[in-house]
């Protein structure tokens, strides 16, 4: 005869899982309220969304294209050309839209892909420990030894001229960025692995992959979200540096870094060609930084100190 008490532990584990799921869902509205309690972080999020709308929707509404000449050469900002034109007649607004679009695509791709890979590798290292941890950490140390900009420049130069150059640049920068995320997530997972609900999942017969995906990574999501924002700001500055050095996005396409590189010789005679792209680089970097700060405060209310700015 089957002992009915044998089913009790599994039932308790199921109830615990359901309770965790309900608690997790109830935390979302509180997290949103805490984030929007900060005026600075809310304003930064609004500005960042407006910049993305400007970059991705604006080209469909504006009557000039970034790669089509206009009859006006070296015209300063006006109603017809709010960001002026360059010496060949390209409309500055259209070019900044395209440049912001490309730079944002690269930055978001780097942030998401590097965070995805780094989170999974960090979770593996923290969960298994010992040999797996040591092997992955030595691999990460090996990648971090190399200067990122120099390696990115060499790898970008080797793939220069391809039709998907922006995607290639994103892959290069993501390859150099994921080890940082892996280290951060590993440190978080090492403490989470010792928790009771992970022990309960193991006792219920859950696979290692299920524990990592359903328990470890979601409970390290606070660290991961902050890593996304930090990598977004870092990636757009890295892309700017590569394009400025001539190893990033190439003509006839453009990016914010390439626009600045092309306009550096005209900074005293046609400053609008230099300062408008620079303004958008600064705008994206600052807003993403404030968004990350807001996420960190919302995920850990103890950091807010009871006052919001």
What does this structure look like?
- The chain has a single domain, classed as Orthogonal Bundle (MetI-like fold), CATH 1.10.3720.
- By secondary structure, the chain is an all-alpha fold.
- The chain is built from 12 helices and no strands.
- The relative contact order is 0.15.
Key words describing this protein structure:
mainly alpha, MetI-like fold, elongated, disordered C terminus
Counted up, domains total 1
The percent range for helix content is over 70%
User: How does the overall form come out from the CA principal axes?
Assistant: elongated
CATH class: Mainly Alpha
In CATH, the architecture is: Orthogonal Bundle
Low-pLDDT runs:
1-16, 19-23, 304-308
Global mean pLDDT: 80
Order of helices and strands: HHHHHHHHHHHH
Distance between the termini: 65 Å
DSSP summary: helix tally: 12
CATH-wise, what's the superfamily? MetI-like
Q: Structural class, judged by helices and strands?
A: mainly alpha
Which band does the percent of strand residues land in? Answer: under 5%
Radius of gyration: 24 Å
Largest sheet: none
- Total beta strands: 0
CATH topology: MetI-like fold
In summary, what is this structure?
Helices cover 72% and strands 0% of the residues.
What secondary-structure arrangement, pairings included, does this model have?
Layout: H1 8-36, H2 39-56, H3 58-61, H4 92-128, H5 130-145, H6 148-158, H7 165-192, H8 196-203, H9 208-219, H10 221-245, H11 256-263, H12 272-299
Helix pairs in contact: 1-8, 1-12, 2-4, 2-12, 4-5, 4-7, 4-9, 4-10, 4-11, 4-12, 5-7, 6-7, 7-10, 8-9, 10-11, 10-12, 11-12
């Amino acid at each position: 005869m089957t002992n009915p008490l044998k089913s009790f532990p599994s039932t308790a584990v199921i109830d615990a899982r359901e309770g965790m799921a309900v608690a997790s869902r109830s935390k979302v509205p509180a997290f949103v309220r805490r984030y929007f309690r900060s005026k600075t972080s809310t304003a930064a999020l609004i500005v960042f969304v407006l910049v993305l709308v400007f970059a991705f929707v604006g080209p469909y509404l504006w009557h000039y294209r970034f790669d089509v000449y206009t009859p006006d050469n070296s015209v300063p900002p006006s109603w017809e050309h709010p960001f002026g034109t360059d010496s060949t007649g390209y409309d500055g607004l259209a070019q900044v839209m395209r440049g912001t679009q490309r730079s944002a695509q690269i930055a978001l791709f780097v942030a998401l892909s590097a965070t995805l890979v780094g989170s999974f590798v960090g979770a593996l290292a923290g969960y298994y420990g010992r040999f797996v941890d040591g092997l992955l950490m030595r691999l990460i140390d090996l990648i971090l030894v190399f200067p990122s900009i120099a390696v990115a420049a060499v790898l970008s130069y080797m793939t220069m001229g391809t039709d998907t150059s922006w995607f290639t640049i994103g892959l290069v920068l993501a390859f150099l960025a994921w080890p940082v995320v892996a280290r951060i997530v590993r440190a978080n997972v090492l403490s989470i692995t010792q928790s009771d609900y992970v022990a309960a999942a193991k006792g219920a017969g859950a696979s290692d992959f299920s524990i990592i995906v359903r328990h470890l990574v979601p409970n390290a999501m606070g660290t991961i979200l902050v890593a996304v924002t930090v990598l977004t700001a870092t990636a757009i500055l890295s892309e700017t540096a590569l394009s400025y050095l001539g190893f990033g996005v190439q003509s006839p396409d453009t990016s914010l870094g390439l626009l600045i590189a092309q306009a550096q010789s005209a900074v005293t005679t046609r400053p609008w060609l230099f300062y408008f792209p620079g303004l958008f680089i600064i705008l994206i970097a600052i807003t993403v930084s404030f968004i990350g700060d807001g996420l960190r405060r919302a995920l850990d209310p103890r950091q807010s100190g009871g006052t919001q700015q």
